[in-house]
Fold these 3 entries.
Entry 1:
Amino acid sequence: MSVSRVVELEGHIIDSGMMQAAFGIIMDRGGSFDVEEFDIGRRKDKESYARLLVTADTEEDLQRIVHDLHQQGANPADPADATLEPAPEDRVVPHGFYSTTNHPTQIRYEGEWVDVEDVEMDCAVVVEERESPRGSEESSGNEPRDGDSNVRAYTKVLNAVEEGDRIVTGDAGIRVQPPERPRDQEGAFGFMQGGVSSERPSESTIQQIAEAIEETKAEGGNVLVVAGPALIHSGAREDLARLVENGYVDSLSIGNGFAVHDIERDLYGTSLGVNTETLDHARHGHKHHIYAISEVIRAGGIEEAVEDGLIDSGVMYQCVENDVPYVIAGSIRDDGPLPDTITDAIEAQNAIREQAHEADMVLMLSTLLHSVAVGNCLPSTARVVCVDINPATVTQLLDRGSAQAVGMVTDIGTFVPILAENLLEEGAVELDD
Amino acid sequence: MSVSRVVELEGHIIDSGMMQAAFGIIMDRGGSFDVEEFDIGRRKDKESYARLLVTADTEEDLQRIVHDLHQQGANPADPADATLEPAPEDRVVPHGFYSTTNHPTQIRYEGEWVDVEDVEMDCAVVVEERESPRGSEESSGNEPRDGDSNVRAYTKVLNAVEEGDRIVTGDAGIRVQPPERPRDQEGAFGFMQGGVSSERPSESTIQQIAEAIEETKAEGGNVLVVAGPALIHSGAREDLARLVENGYVDSLSIGNGFAVHDIERDLYGTSLGVNTETLDHARHGHKHHIYAISEVIRAGGIEEAVEDGLIDSGVMYQCVENDVPYVIAGSIRDDGPLPDTITDAIEAQNAIREQAHEADMVLMLSTLLHSVAVGNCLPSTARVVCVDINPATVTQLLDRGSAQAVGMVTDIGTFVPILAENLLEEGAVELDD
Amino acid sequence: MSVSRVVELEGHIIDSGMMQAAFGIIMDRGGSFDVEEFDIGRRKDKESYARLLVTADTEEDLQRIVHDLHQQGANPADPADATLEPAPEDRVVPHGFYSTTNHPTQIRYEGEWVDVEDVEMDCAVVVEERESPRGSEESSGNEPRDGDSNVRAYTKVLNAVEEGDRIVTGDAGIRVQPPERPRDQEGAFGFMQGGVSSERPSESTIQQIAEAIEETKAEGGNVLVVAGPALIHSGAREDLARLVENGYVDSLSIGNGFAVHDIERDLYGTSLGVNTETLDHARHGHKHHIYAISEVIRAGGIEEAVEDGLIDSGVMYQCVENDVPYVIAGSIRDDGPLPDTITDAIEAQNAIREQAHEADMVLMLSTLLHSVAVGNCLPSTARVVCVDINPATVTQLLDRGSAQAVGMVTDIGTFVPILAENLLEEGAVELDD
Amino acid sequence: MSVSRVVELEGHIIDSGMMQAAFGIIMDRGGSFDVEEFDIGRRKDKESYARLLVTADTEEDLQRIVHDLHQQGANPADPADATLEPAPEDRVVPHGFYSTTNHPTQIRYEGEWVDVEDVEMDCAVVVEERESPRGSEESSGNEPRDGDSNVRAYTKVLNAVEEGDRIVTGDAGIRVQPPERPRDQEGAFGFMQGGVSSERPSESTIQQIAEAIEETKAEGGNVLVVAGPALIHSGAREDLARLVENGYVDSLSIGNGFAVHDIERDLYGTSLGVNTETLDHARHGHKHHIYAISEVIRAGGIEEAVEDGLIDSGVMYQCVENDVPYVIAGSIRDDGPLPDTITDAIEAQNAIREQAHEADMVLMLSTLLHSVAVGNCLPSTARVVCVDINPATVTQLLDRGSAQAVGMVTDIGTFVPILAENLLEEGAVELDD
């Protein structure tokens, strides 16, 4: 005696790898299938459709197969509504809650598909009926996509779950759309399918990244830069500051160390005690970072220190002057920290989450910790650039399956200057247009 | 006006990724296709079959598509014989010669498919009619698979091509069978599909490698060990020597440095001047390696030094005592070198090629240079294990697309002892059976 | 016109490198010197003494030279008392405050030298007179070494400074004692003088680390283990749990991820969704870590989950069962987090600081973030072992100049099992004594 | 009963670390010493002098101490002549032969000190009396430095030793001068004292390297570039070609792969099949390298292919056009190889040795194998620049103790363009002077 269910695959199901993955799952899990319908998109602009009858020995096996198929974007042909259960306590989710992927997701509610807002990995999905058709004021600016609906679904991280939240459990009534791999697209952003390598043409790759930034800006998109202190030590500070000044950076996500060393360079001409131009070790240089922190504490914060004229150059200075918002997330290895540093990890995550949800393109520059924190909040539809000298870092950051991602194993101290040269030359030209 | 050709795909064409790759190629190259027949293997032991009519704008475009499809294992439905042209001079191949992949390959000759012997990447394929039906004596033990045929096809590296060799050119009449990814197989050898990571359970992976070695030996297979000098410095020498002594190593492929440091340890108790047990730096230790070389030169060679009683322990000693053949390939960074070192790169490659062609399983232990040299000569059907502390080395070595490969980013100085413990315990048990 | 001052060097000033450093500083800074007295310790148990008259062109130059000499342990021959200034506000230090090194330090107060308690880098030194001669009860168990004194000096990080704290400024009246490099000591702990390498005898090094742990425990010392989640993924969890169970770990410093994956393994048999024994990918495995967090939240915390019988194996379990205190420090990349995780960075640093100040030996196992956090709080007298697969991590961690440190570039998944084998065998033997 | 000997140290013995090393050796080896005279150089242009009476328990212990001191540049006060013994056979050295360091060395012969020519590590020193005062014609252009002497001493690698060569044995009568660490010199070339890091100001470091190249050329020095194929893949080929064209490269040391990929780019516009400008994967691109080799074989060699007009751009082209000599050293991982590749390792080493002995400055660009081969032949007086993306490679290459060396962990694909920009702009300016 065996049990069956019909599942459907739609889209570029062959060249996205969806079909291969689906067949693999069924076979590996001991099931079998019949292809009831299979319509192959024969040109690159055509989508395909397949309908499979999946069979397994037990209902439990079948559910496992269907669950795994579902993660790959194969959806039951006869969808039920999503199952909702209330959270029993604050921060406590119902057993068997649905934990999200980072792909665009819909849940079925009273027979209709509702987009899940603010999609992000490892979250619960909360469904609420809106009291008024206008939408809830307390929502953080994320209007539901379907204006007529009086229901919204959105993600919540575990620590934000409140008692009584109606939370999706099980797999029923959920649709996931993994990104299709970009096709007919070579160059930098097509590269990553075969992994990360340092043996790629560096200048050409940087040029293509510059073009993608121009393109994002031209489309009105938001560029988020995530950067680690190595950027300052390696001498790339002035060029990043110029990019901020010239409007290429919409938001900055950093740690205490980045801000400290940026300000140290402004106040004492050094980074970690080394003059980044002459390469000389300054006298007392090993104390400069702690003195820099002390001066900012005395001033009351970075913005105050800029207003007082204490800080008059650098990345943080340009952010303050050009109203580019920044999040300084604290960490247990911080000195000080600066008054601007958000020391509570959950509070910092929430600030980062907002940055990530607004970003159309993210540059992750020589920081693993902050890049992972941002990456955790990104949907798979964001454009991602990861730059690090350590190939393991780049690999780890690209593992999340962004649709458009490029990784470069290169020196941040040469990457940023060449990027700035590409953008600021281009930019100058654009101004004439 | 457009041109078309029919190509066929056979085997596990979906879960091997063959179909996805084929569709991608056609679309990326600007072609289109109709699926004339598509029979999906619905259970994991069933093969699939697809017949596509591929269409492109020009004959040239079509040829490129068909060429690229062909590299992925899709073959024209109406094959012609392979085109043969004579080599105009020694070492000079005809224009447009067919350069091999490392996958099992057949060429069509007078309407019949002939297996290409000694398949290896980047070679020319030479076809010769045999004078007698018995086969040529000069062949190195590689009997053609089709005993009745009086034709053989085999690979030749460029430097071995002789004037007049009949060499395959173009793509017609050639069939390539890329390996299917192992399915229904998890564990170490199923791991590599997602890349290399150091975050894997180390002891369990080593245990599965030990099981694969046992399995290979049980099937009468040949195990080739490729090892670098780091193995000696890291203190794993005694355990590798025990594996040689106990019959787990059929062949050893090393460089001058490995042999020198193995012998240095025997003669002076040090490796690179460091006592590998007490970790003390020996007096005069920095000279030990050059003294070790000098002593072996004086004796006339490693075998002579073993026979004289000069060398009485270690990996080289066990190889001599147990008749395990070794190839010591020279390099421009060698000291000495030892009299046993083959200093000519082509001669050394030929010796390595023989080792590689005989090997069913290859352990690549902490050497990039020698592993690449061996890997260049391996067919994609060989089982490969790559171990290195540097993830970039492991990634590079696994990029060749072996059917069954496992990479471990680990410390060779702990890997070999744990492997030996697994094998020598297992072996002891097996003797009782 | 030039100015001069007499400085003294004492101890193993030549083989510690102190003299070389001192001469270099004077010359590089444009000064000159006369050696007024030089008494060389001619045997390894003899200390040396040198008195130099240092001359520079200006008082400012001289002060810089003397400051830098001072960081190297050369002290003015005619010390003044340390200068004290009150902190103008909470978290604000006086200008020119003395920022500490991690070396044993004394300050001169009313003509007497007072040990600075809880020495740690980048701190301010606060001096307070005790109200009663008995010592202040609010001190965290760190009794001043000089029982008769009614003054104590101790370090404070910037964020702990309170308005009115009397803080040391300038360089006068401060003595620093950099550790002498261990001499007459080869083996693992003598290794690090020449940098970090993966080409060292691994098993012998691990054995010497085991001996150092035994020695530390035999002397009643405190062993702090700092560990990252890679330890769990790499399959070393059971062996670390055994070390905790057998009393080799006095304190554990980890992040949320370590605890989550340890508990995931207990609840679901996986780590990051991979079964660490069979290496199979579990069904739904990618959700296990988030489910594990959810279950612990539901229980109320790790200790509660152990008491409830939910968690019954692993590192966290053994810590709870054996009363081994742990600090789980939060980070912006955390999922969840667990209720036990300290999410505020400053609070977490304070908890880590206490662990670090109590530790005589610290094992830093495959985590950069937590190791840096602990390392920031360690005096240079602590014994340190750093183990990571990434050489850059090991180098960075060893750069702080511990007197006795060993770095190993190895696989944590093989390191811990071999260490446990060494210790638990040794330990068994010791019990008979 | 104990034995003693007087040794002398001269030069910048304190700030070079010589004295510290000497005291450490004596103590570690169980000896003791009296400082009979100690005259400290008190300004940076003054040298120091120390005379020590070293005492040990046995003559054997004393000899070991004196041997080790000697390696550090401490020389017996009462030197004897060097001991000479004839080589018993070709390639066989006498027992106890003196194996060289890479530091400037002199041997004492009939009461006079004779400079050892062509100093290089791990060689034997051969002494020969010249038949005529003019010097031997068979010497490879290396005239003895002391024109009046009728004796010359020079290094020979083991494989070049001929029966009857008079070879220095033991330690007597040998003086070694380790380089002093550069002082009063900060910036890039002063950096390396603290190890290698990727966290250094990249552009400033490259600028200082450019200045050092200018300086070397201005002094009439010889610049040797050692480069690996990653340079081509990373898109830096055109800039290196411009440097060759503009006279900044006097000699090039490469492998077969570098030349193949440089020529592949010329013939097919790709490197490893990837278009280094558009980043597109070329059709048939994976065959380009083997086709490039085949074309050069057909032409008869690189020079012939340039002359035939087949090759008309790139690094090899500019070398041929500008008479910049190159050595292409073969290796077991080579495809082809090209007819110009020296396949015998000893022959290739000899060619490299000549390049190394003529070089005043060596740029080692992203190749470990060829850099080690060149480094093996370099005296410690050569200026060395090592550039690689892998920190372990840079560390390994800098371990040889060059007096002036700088290591950069950076991307060769951005390093060479920025270096070229610095040099070619600078050069243009210089032409006006």
Entry 2:
Amino acid sequence: MTEHSLWRFSRALHRAINERQSEDLAALLDDNVDWAVYGPIDMFPFHGARRGKAAVLEVCRQVADNIRVHRFERESMMLGVDSGASIMRYSLTALGSNRPISLRLAQFAQFSGGNLTSIRVVIDTFDLVEQALGRPIHLPKIA
Amino acid sequence: MTEHSLWRFSRALHRAINERQSEDLAALLDDNVDWAVYGPIDMFPFHGARRGKAAVLEVCRQVADNIRVHRFERESMMLGVDSGASIMRYSLTALGSNRPISLRLAQFAQFSGGNLTSIRVVIDTFDLVEQALGRPIHLPKIA
């Protein structure tokens, strides 16, 4: 039984971010990989859409410049033959401010021949923004 | 071939929200259902965690008081035997302000015997908050 592509990809991604070693990640990205991390790109230029291996490796370098991953936990998980989705809880440090950040996100990944062809990431971005700012944003109650 | 539990649940949920008819939804909720919608509960009191059928029906009534669903599209999807996960794009109206809201979320649902036992929803909450406020929140660039 071979390891699921999601585990290899996850390990390679975290190695690229925390150790700045992106060879494993490069080997697991489809040349035409379709990448989207939904979030406020004005604040986080490494959010947004990227297309192709070179663009994804570059955005992962930008992520590595800005955060360090300390821990992550998968809160929900689904695996298909060539796909995997999970809700994850990350403990990070924002390197510029040295602020600890606790982040919840959902990711949906598609693989072909073991390589990542598509990934979509939805983040609880308001919580992220408040932590990155280091202060709460006042909100009116709408309901 | 029977219909997947996720489709029945989705139909019942939208009926409860848009038509305020919650009988179908009530019949599909496990008595001890575990429900979590991650988001800023100060602004949206119907976000947060709920436990049990009565609490979930009540929070769905609060959602129905506050939004109307116009359209939704599943952008990514995974189905298991007793589970389903998707990234969805919703077009809503916020009833209080009459503002149109376009919302992206990821949901992970677990079923047992056709009934919902657990659901987790991650929302692109910053985008939601800005639309609900009707104005952008200025953000510094952190990277």
Entry 3:
Amino acid sequence: MISQHEFVVATAGRGTYDLGDDIRGLVLASGVVTGICHVFVRHTSASLMLCENADSAVRQDLESFMQRLVPDGDPLFTHIDEGPDDMPAHVRSILTRSDLSLPVSDGGCALGTWQGVYLWEHRLASHRRKVMVTISGESR
Amino acid sequence: MISQHEFVVATAGRGTYDLGDDIRGLVLASGVVTGICHVFVRHTSASLMLCENADSAVRQDLESFMQRLVPDGDPLFTHIDEGPDDMPAHVRSILTRSDLSLPVSDGGCALGTWQGVYLWEHRLASHRRKVMVTISGESR
Amino acid sequence: MISQHEFVVATAGRGTYDLGDDIRGLVLASGVVTGICHVFVRHTSASLMLCENADSAVRQDLESFMQRLVPDGDPLFTHIDEGPDDMPAHVRSILTRSDLSLPVSDGGCALGTWQGVYLWEHRLASHRRKVMVTISGESR
């Protein structure tokens, strides 16, 4: 069986947003007991990550790392019409990812103890980000 | 139901190649209405990416970024028998990805407006790259 | 049909560990002929990669690259309580990946000739890493 839903994350600009509750709710509602939960962000300047969820300093350090690796306003870039953070947002998205597949086991997402699912907004301004979740597998 | 096909992308060396038409055609032919389209490149020196498809400068800037991050002929590398672009191609593949899972909804790939699917050839010379597409889900 | 199993990789610290035999065995045992094999590591400081499997120098060069890109003890990081290799392990995991989906064709993983599946332990100390494999598709 397959269950598919889309929801919107209203971001307040660059930063990470915990999708755990949304995803857990959709997996539970789907009735899938064993299978795969696929999460997909329909944009190229926001992405997904599985990240340590206990200490928020981890996500802040990831943000610092990305700002150093792909600085806003980097003179390397020619695609600059939409602002100094636009091309870095595309690079950051490609270095992380737009899709994520999680195992579903015993009716829930079989994440590790410290694994959280986050949407990473890479643009400085707030955006509305569409996330599509497709859960497939066997029900009871 | 599951539908699986392999096709070959004949690349003209380093650069990006739009797979959108191939993938859209295979999804349509599969008859899957709701599900997942899995795309896989069977190589370790070419990869896949979901990238902004409106302005080709985005892909050129990504190429510039990768050349700066993983320069050809980097003296760090010891695996150099196949040329100065070989080890960088492996690194670039691992920083991007070999597999991609896309949601299928209403019989088509539910990509965002600006999302294109590209094969990224990382070697300087032309190659024949095998891409396997597996579409699974519910048909009408 | 769906088959799901978890196994543990006992790592001897930072380095790569070939998962090919484990995965091939599980795909064969599942009886799935056409489908997807999903591999998932339930941690945020170890990851997965598809990498050239012929010359181990490729994996050593990847390790060198990551040590240069995300050095242990980097003063950029504030999440340092668990040691100088902890935050780099999180960054390295996010630049690579926690999940991997492989095509299953003719009853086996349809990897390219030179593609190997590796777990990449990013911490310096040995760890026990849980890997969950979910194989779905059509059987004979």
